[in-house]
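Researcher: Let's do a round of design. I'm pasting the C-alpha cells now; please hold your answer until I've finished.
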C-alpha cells in the first residue's frame, strides 16, 4: 500500500474530490498548501501572516514558505501517511520537498497526475461550487446545499475564465516540469480525470494498492 502520495494535475481535474475519497477509503489525511496556509492565517501564526501578505498583494507564496508549511504539517504528524493535493507545483517546491522527505527518511511513494482536457476544465470550473463548511466540491447547480453536510455552497473566488487562464499558464510553465521530474524518477502515474468520479477512483485505488 502506497501511503506517501502527491496528487497533481491542472485546475478542476478532480484532485479535491479524489483526495476526499482516498481519505474516506484509506484514512490517509489529505492537505493542500492553500488550505494549510489559510489555517495558519486564522491561527495567527507568523507563517500564516507572512503568506497572507503575499495573497493580499495578489502574489503566490514563495516556494520556501510553502515547503515550510509542509514541513510543519509533517512534523506535527510524525510518520503518518500523507496525501498532498496540488503540491508540489514548481521545481523549487519539488526540490525542497525531496530534501525534507530525505531528512525524514520517508521518500515519496507515488505522484498521481489527474489529467483533463481544456474543454472539460473550462466547463467544470464554470459549473462547480465548494461547500463553505466541509470543502466538498459540488458540480452543477441542482443542489442548493452541500449533499454531504448541508453547508452553504459558494463559487470559488478564482473560478472564472480570466483567472482560469492565468492558472493554466502557470500550470504549464511551473507544474508541467514537476511532472517530467517525477516521470524521470519513475514515480509518476497518470489517470484520465475526465470520467465519472467512481471510474477515476477505481484506477487510483489500483495504483495505491
Ligand atoms: Zn459540506
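Researcher: That's everything. Go ahead.
Model: Designed sequence:
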Amino acid at each position: 500500500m502506497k501511503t506517501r502520495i502527491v496528487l497533481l494535475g491542472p485546475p478542476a481535474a478532480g484532485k479535491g474530490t479524489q483526495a476526499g475519497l482516498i481519505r474516506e477509503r484509506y484514512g490517509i489525511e489529505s492537505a493542500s498548501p492553500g488550505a494549510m496556509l489559510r489555517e495558519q492565517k486564522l491561527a495567527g501564526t507568523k507563517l500564516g501572516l507572512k503568506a497572507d501578505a503575499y495573497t493580499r498583494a495578489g502574489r503566490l507564496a514563495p516556494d520556501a514558505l510553502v515547503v515550510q508549511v509542509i514541513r510543519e504539517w509533517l512534523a506535527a504528524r510524525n510518520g503518518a501517511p500523507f496525501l498532498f493535493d496540488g503540491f508540489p507545483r514548481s521545481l523549487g517546491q519539488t526540490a525542497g520537498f525531496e530534501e525534507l522527505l530525505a531528512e525524514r527518511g520517508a521518500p515519496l511513494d507515488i505522484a498521481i497526475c489527474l489529467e483533463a482536457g481544456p474543454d472539460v476544465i473550462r466547463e467544470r470550473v464554470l459549473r462547480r461550487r465548494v461547500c463553505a463548511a466541509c470543502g466538498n466540491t459540488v458540480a452543477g447547480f441542482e443542489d442548493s446545499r452541500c449533499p454531504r453536510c448541508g453547508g452553504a455552497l459558494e463559487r470559488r473566488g478564482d473560478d472564472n475564465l480570466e483567472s482560469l487562464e492565468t492558472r493554466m499558464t502557470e500550470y504549464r510553465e511551473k507544474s508541467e516540469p514537476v511532472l517530467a521530474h517525477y516521470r524521470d524518477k519513475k514515480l509518476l502515474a497518470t489517470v484520465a480525470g475526465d470520467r465519472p468520479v467512481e471510474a477515476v477512483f477505481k484506477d487510483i485505488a489500483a495504483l495505491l494498492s
